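Lecture 7, part B: from sequences to assemblies.

Below are the input chains for today's worked example.
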Amino acid sequence: MAHRIEIALKRGVHDGRGAGVAHRARNFFHLPVTSCTSRDVFKVDVDLKPKQLREVQKIFTDPVIARSAIGRLAAPAFDWLVETSFKPGVTDNLGRTAQEVVTDTIGRPLTAQEGVYTGVQYLLKGALTREQVQRLGRDLLANELIQSIRVFSAEEWAAAPADAEPPVIRDHTAASVHAYDLGGSDADLMKISRDGILSLSLAEMYAIRDYFNRPDVRAARATLGLPDQPTDVELECLAQTWSEHCKHKIFAARVRYVDEQGREQVIESLFKTFIRAATEKIRADVDWLVSVFTDNAGIIRFNDKYNVSFKCETHNSPSALDPYGGAITGIVGVNRDPMGTGMGCELVCNTWGYCFGSPFFEGELPAGLMHPRRIRDGVHQGVIDGGNQSGIPWTRGFERFDERYLGKPLVYCGTIGKIPRTLQGRPSERKEIFPGDAIVMCGGRIGKDGIHGATFSSEELRHESPAQAVQIGDPITQRKMYEFLMEARDLGLFRALTDNGAGGLSSSLGEMSSMSGGAEIDLAKAPLKYEGLQPWEILLSEAQERMSLAVQPENITAFLALAKRRDVEANVIGTFTDSGAFVVKYGDRFVGRIEMDFLHDGCPKMEIEARWQPPQIAAPAPLRAGNRNHALLGLLGALNVCSKEFKSRQYDGEVKGLSVVKPFVGVQSDMPSDATVMRVEYASNAGIILAEGINPFFSDLDTYAMMASVIDEAVRRVVSVGGKLGQIAGLDNFCWPDPVLSEKTPDGPYKMAQLVRANQALFDVCTAYLVPPISGKDSMKNDSVRGGRKISIPPTVLFSTIAKMDDVRKAVTMHFKQAGDLIYVIGLTQDELGASEFHRWLAAEQGTPANYGGTVPRLDVPRALATYRAMNAVIEAGLLHSSHTPTLGGLAVAFALAVLGGDLGAEITLDAVPQSGKLSDDALLFAESNSRFVVTCAPEQAATLETAFRGVPCARVGTVAATRTLKLATAKRTLIESDLDALRKNFKKTLAGI
Amino acid sequence: MNPKILIITGYGLNCEAESSHAWTLAGAAPELVHLNDLIERPTRLHDYAGLMFIGGFSYGDHMGSGLAFGARVRHHMQADLAKFIADGKLILGVCNGFQIMTKLGLLPGLDNNYFTQSVALMHNDCGAFQNFWVTLRFEEQSPCVFTRGLGPMPLPIRHGEGKVFTLDHALLDRMERLGCVPCRYADPATGAATDKFPLNPNGSLNAIAGLCDPTGRVFGLMPHPEAYLFPENHPQWDLQKLRGELPSQGAGLKIFQNAVQFLKLT
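Predicted structure of the full complex, as structure tokens:
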């Protein structure tokens, strides 16, 4: 029998959770909630004697601030009570910890049928209708996809019995396997694909049908007792392995690209032609590439002792359905990439970045979409909890806002790892698996979580998108597994490992078995969270916190014993073979057999049309010449420019104590740094620099220019703090709307052309800059068709950079340091205001927000390289007191942030700024031209500095002043004159407390 | 000989690397031991001169920070911990470690009662986890051996539940009288204790940042001294360097050096 325990804070103790609900209900929902108190509810479904139950109650209750009762706890007067709890089968991390506390308290492990489940009660006061309370429950307190919400009036609550019923899954459906008949019509085949959320195309269904019709395949299957037609295990496994998410079919497709002059080009695989080719070309010129594109994360050499790895992922679709769960899974999931790279990397730091609709959005939302403020809050909290609880510091973070992210938010999460270059005398990047090695799954158990996650993310967001596609990460289970794996690695107890992410076991074992040449697993040996899973569900489940390993037979006893000591679940579920096939059993029965060649190479290649036609976007009407204070203040407060400090401070950025240049710098630690710098180990002054570039707005004018600018931004940020050309590696994350021509995507060829152009730029710029892409990911179906309205994201590329820094103590930060220092502008400012922050601000001011066209910033590669070489030299020589690279908002915003960081003033003569031709005031102030820096040095260093920049656009434009005023003027007029307080206030107010 | 320090790991604690580095720099010999290995043979505790409960997120802070880890330690190790304290040894707790010690009752440990919780570390008044730097002031009259002779010290805080709280004002007064409050959040401009956010990041009563027992040998605090070992950890190290004021080591190290000095003298 289950027991209910209710816990409340004592009178006089501040209830922050309750107060927060009341605050949001009043301010965001405009509901008359006068007060809210909150309580915790535990349903302890454990066989306990009365004395044991009282002990459990006592230990659950903080004696200083809380009180509790078994059953109902007397409540003060309220009007409405809302109780939320997880639906059956949803990860309940609090419940899991409570289970462990109960275990410790009663001194015995819980049985498989026992468990502890949690919920929260909100006691509301105020003149509210039931409908209003239900809305609060749905839109503020819980997510109906994963939680149950029950609403009671005071009278109903008094009359209702105390509910101790645990939300358990009691599904005793026997395991069964059925075969699909692929002998039907095309319509039948597509119905099978659609009904099963398999996302298989007709061509792919044909390929599968033909494979199973092969006589040799039939014969091999017959010997195992398998039917001629594919089983659900096999069809699901193929659908996962061939999903866009796992197979990157669009990047592998044959593309026929036609440019605006009608010239045609056939491209066999964008990935091979542009991305991998760039890295291969650069390989001859750098000596630090260790492992690229082959493992879960790219590996580069750091120093004699360590290699460093980096991976960045997106978790967009799950975050749209359950922002918290999707995002925590995103960060904890990407942690497993470096963890599963080589022989397993230690985790060094995390990065994050999000693209959302405006949190202040007031228009009409298509039915079924969450408000962007709610998505944003949930996503931040998920990554905050995931990163903080895992003990991994964040280093970079950004947010971009645009209405086109209403349909699908973009949630980027990245992780950097490090690994000794050799382990047990072998190169640590080398994974080997031999026939006979045991297949071990370790970490969490398998439930229905995340089933069809990979195929689902390969589709647009629809109303009927599956609830099981949501997982909730459990950082503590993963942390335990991580520490265990590192210990086992250093003892040499396994031969290879990889993570279970999208596609679950089917994906991880599918990959690993190609190293030995086959595998045979028994799904009945995999530990389950609850009964009732079908064999294909066990194979596909994306339940989190799991790794698959290859353990040599002689180590298996020691490996399992260590896992037990560390309280980590580990089970042998099969054996690697060299049979050439992936063979699946359930108990004694064979339920699947797919030949490795077909599994990995049988997917037919897509053919996609791409046609480029430059878009026509009008520019805003030019502003009349005059003062631009209001424009600068407007830009500083614009969502894409303004301070993101409020949310950022909730992420732990200092665990491990290795940070050098933090995400926020300046005398008040409140200005975003150009790039961050951290040590990698305690014993060395060498470190890594991390930065990124992202600009979806330029995509609207030309994705070639967008990609070039984004790479330049990611590189020049690194250069700004002291990173050197030749030591910078890149990571590309493409997020695109569906670019394949179809009835619902008539503009597919244009979107595909945008993708081609971005890839062309990537090859051109990366090879010129010697910045090899070492890893990356794409997410190609970022559209929503909910509520009958299609919303597609703008083509968005996050380009992340990582660079080694030989001595982190030479790092330079972005803010002005002392009065009297000379200010220089390096690089050329051009008439490039197209899609700039200024044009978008101006277009909105003029009531025509779509008219933000103009000339998009271009890249002059030779000039950029000369500039970066000179920057490398002056920083190495210690000449610079500050260095800041302009991005959104151009020079005006750059000057503003540099003075704010220093809490010092500056007087700038804009005529002196190096420029092409004679620019307008607005272009001088706000153009977002590439490859520029604002730097300062001591007056006595002026001559040395100017010599170093000979041959590069460079001009002294002013002096740092003690006046706390920023003045930007031409010979004709003062364009901007503002005291620092007004600038700071505008920069910080937009998202203060939000 | 360098005094041996036991650092307990596992279950979501995560500051083992920097804590170990801090003790090593200070001249001690730290050893990382998983909680399960310690529970298997709790008497090995007595091989060490000092014990550290490090920061992190034991059990994800579910059910209240430190509760689950504290319950496990109490269940398996209470007698050995009592003996460890009675033997005159040192215990340090940082952040989650401080929370665990408070849940156990090790702090403030009045009247030799080390295993009854008497104060709480509550959710920050601001309602969220926070990471930024604060300034600590140290109280000269405290018997705390870790904080002897220290001036104002900048350190990072990284917590969601750091507000020292009790409804029992008599208890608070006794803790103050006995010198159990060795450090407080302070305004760097004046050096005075402060209630103002963000100088006081959590709304702690009497601006309490850390507590010790009446012997001064058992000490816990919310800010992270082990996260300020390098001079470049300081958020304004760039300005300090330009002005020639960059220290040779991070100030947080002094707390560990004080402990090692005490152990070497006893």
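Note for the exam: Chain B has seven helices and eleven strands. Keep this in mind when comparing with the next example.
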